Amino acid sequence: MVQKRQLSSSLEDYLEAIFNLSQKGKVARSKDIAQILGVARASVTGALKLLNSKGLIDYKPYGFIILTEKGVQKAQSVVRRHNIIESFFVNVLGVEQQIAEQAACKAEHALGPVVISKLLNFTEFSTYYSEKGTDFIADFQKYCRSKGL
């Protein structure tokens, strides 16, 4: 059975942006979120109202945006999915960092927990065997380069 996400991809992106700003020691403001996500400030306002109504942020117009405990947990889940996918793209598939970042941002919303778990397990497995001297990932990446990929 496919598990349905409680938030849209767009709202998850807003949570992720707020979380990342807070992790950098910055306060989250509408204009910063608009700049990060490349959207109009009016769009940010609408999304913030929705996130506030779901209890994920504390938000007052023209004020700072603060994640609630529930919001932090949800944002950490999104960031974790993103990091697992990006790590797989970079460390297993050999995708360039910038391309992997963009692709992970899209994939984090589409892949379910089973697939994310498998990606994490395979990345850990391949790292373990690379450290043991069986570097089939390097061989795979070399093969891809020979094919012009």
Question: Care to give the gist of this entry?
Answer:
The protein has helices at 9-23, 30-37, 41-53, 69-92, 97-110, 113-131, 136-146; strands at 57-58, 66-67.
Describe this structure in words.
There is one protein chain. The protein is mostly helical and 149 residues long. The chain folds into two domains: 9-67, Winged helix-like DNA-binding domain superfamily/Winged helix DNA-binding domain (Arc Repressor Mutant, subunit A), CATH 1.10.10; 79-146, Orthogonal Bundle (Diphtheria Toxin Repressor, domain 2). The chain contains seven helices and two strands. It has a two-stranded antiparallel ribbon with strand order 1-2. A hairpin with a 7-residue loop joins β1 (57-58) and β2. α1 (9-23) packs across α4 (69-92) and α4 packs across α5 (97-110). The two termini are 35 Å apart. The mean pLDDT is 89.
